[in-house]
């Protein structure tokens, strides 16, 4: 179909729509899903280091203990928790619940808040157990 008005795009995109919480959470769900591939490579790297020998394993542990390594691990933890909570939200939709506009908006906002809180909680507990 031809664009008769020439004033609007044939296919609206993100620059046209006003961001709403459910849309932002959908985009973040896709981004965190992709980030988990990188995190899985980190887990595999750690396992390979553990099987290679003590010296390499100690180096990998040292790197993960640096500020950059901890930031990467913190981001991986958040991505894992956020993606899991988003998956639970999608599961709820798959069984037919939560389609009401106000409820889905509250659930989207709760998803981001809960993922941040749970990530911080996981790290606090890890530091308490470690010491």
TrEMBL record:
Protein function: Membrane-anchoring subunit of succinate dehydrogenase (SDH).
Q: Signal: is it a keyword of this entry?
A: no
Q: Which UniProt keywords apply?
A: Heme, Iron, Membrane, Metal-binding, Transmembrane, Transmembrane helix
Which SUPFAM superfamilies does the entry link to? Fumarate reductase respiratory complex transmembrane subunits (SSF81343)
Q: How does it sit in the membrane?
A: Multi-pass membrane protein
Specify the protein name.
Answer: Succinate dehydrogenase cytochrome b556 subunit
Q: Give yes or no: UniProt keyword Transmembrane.
A: yes
Subcellular location per UniProt equals:
Membrane
Q: Can you name the source organism?
A: Rhizobium rosettiformans
Top-level taxon of the source organism: Bacteria
Pfam families the record matches = Sdh_cyt (PF01127)
Entry's family note: Belongs to the cytochrome b560 family.
Subunit structure of this chain's protein: Part of an enzyme complex containing four subunits: a flavoprotein, an iron-sulfur protein, plus two membrane-anchoring proteins, SdhC and SdhD. The complex can form homotrimers.
Q: Can you tell me where the transmembrane regions are?
A: 27-47, 59-81, 110-129
**Cofactors that this protein relies on:** heme
